[in-house]
Amino acid sequence: MSISKCVLIVVILLCNASISLAQQKAGSLKLKPYSFENSKGEKTAAEFGTLLVPENRNNPQSNLIELAFVRFKSTAKNPGPPIVYLAGGPGGSGIGAATGSRFPLFMAFREIADVIAFDQRGTGHSKPNLACYERFSLPLDVPPSREIALKELRANAKECITYWRDIQRVDLTGYNTNESADDLEDLRKALGLPKISLWGISYGTHLTFAALRRHPQSISRAILAGIEGPDHTYKLPGNIQQHLEDLAALIKADAQIGKDIPDFLGLMKQVFDQLDAQPQTVEIIDPRTKQKVRVVVNKFVMQYIIGNNIGTTVTANFPAFVYRASKGDFTNPAQVWLNISRQGIGSAMSYMMDCASGQTAARREQIGREAKGTLLEDLSNFPFPGVCEEWNAPDLGDEFRSPLKSNVPVLFISGTLDARTPVSNAEEYLKGFTNGTHLIIDGAVHSDPLFLSSPKIKDGMMEFLRGQKVTVTRTAAPPMKFAPLVSSQSEH
Fold first, then answer.
1. The predicted structure's pLDDT at residue 18
2. Does position 160 have pLDDT exceeding 70, yes or no?
3. How does 41-66 read in b/e, with b if 16+ C-beta sit within 10 Å?
4. pLDDT at position 23
5. φ/ψ (deg, to 5) at 213
6. With 90 as the cut, is the pLDDT of residue 268 above it?
7. pLDDT band for position 487 (50/70/90)?
């Protein structure tokens, strides 16, 4: 090929690139047919969409970022406003959630409207995906502490910030819940929709509150499961302690393990006190290197593991976890702590979102006051808010965290064993919703059980989405099945 032809080709390519870049503007929407496959290999026809939005709407020169979503078309003759699924976390993928255990709900809701699995900014298939590539590297042979763990995490956070902000030129200050709420509004406009409905869980409910505050006329109705209100980002130690007391009552009444653990809270305190006085060193095999490692287990390790998993399906393992420790077997805590000490630190999106949402002074004071008299203190919030000093996210302010009033129909769903987003969270905000309904699930913990632990939950959601009265406002999950006390295998 001649030099002149090569030059011509380069010029054409550069011109095409310039034209392509010129066509890139906020609000640009692309849709294409897509064969969606769930985790079981089942396929269904769908559409894959991308939408360009400003990374930071307060900056006229903002970069554009790409939001991704999958739309499942409705099977109804006259479908209602599309239902947009908002994952929790923050940092969860809506598209990812649709591939898993909630896939049947996505399919069922098509009887009412299009269903959109949405990847919020910074997550999943959206670009950029702000995953941090750094991993913890906590020393295993010294007693860990809040201070040591926080110092390590802040050092790793600094590296992640440098990568995304300084190398990739990402405006991290654009990753907050208000910007995400405006993303939903831009999605609605780009799809040419008068209104959308929202279906959120955990952090997804936090985002829904922001959307209801900022764009109330755009929301037809909303389902909120596991309520994280505007001022609920940081959990109350009193709620966590109440959950432990409720759990202790269930353990005592359990026919299999109750006789061995008549006082679960007393047993926890006994183990904590023993470890506080004398940390334990455990020798285990590192599954990555296949080499023996020595892991120190102390009170902080036990508090952190329980606090990080409380109110989830892992709760069923707590009695065995504590019981074996009381008998001198710390293998399980050592295994879990080894995994924690080597895992990734998470997502820049997640840290920025939570740090920006923050807490009111009253909430901060309440957490500090309640933490002093509880078994887990405030470790259910760790590493927040301390890690936020590194991320330096602009605070959204108390107006963002203020009570909300709305006449939009909302179905609140809560589980009585969900310590992360307890029933009281929904009750606090329900009073501001004139068309609010509360469905309570006895015995349900956080995440999947809020949707899947009883067929009546789906029935209630379908009634609500059809605009009908929800006929069941209380149901029950199956009784919790506690792990046996005798095995020493890791269940975390």
1. 32
2. yes
3. eeebebbbbbbbbbbbeeeeeeeebb
4. 53
5. -75, -40
6. yes
7. low
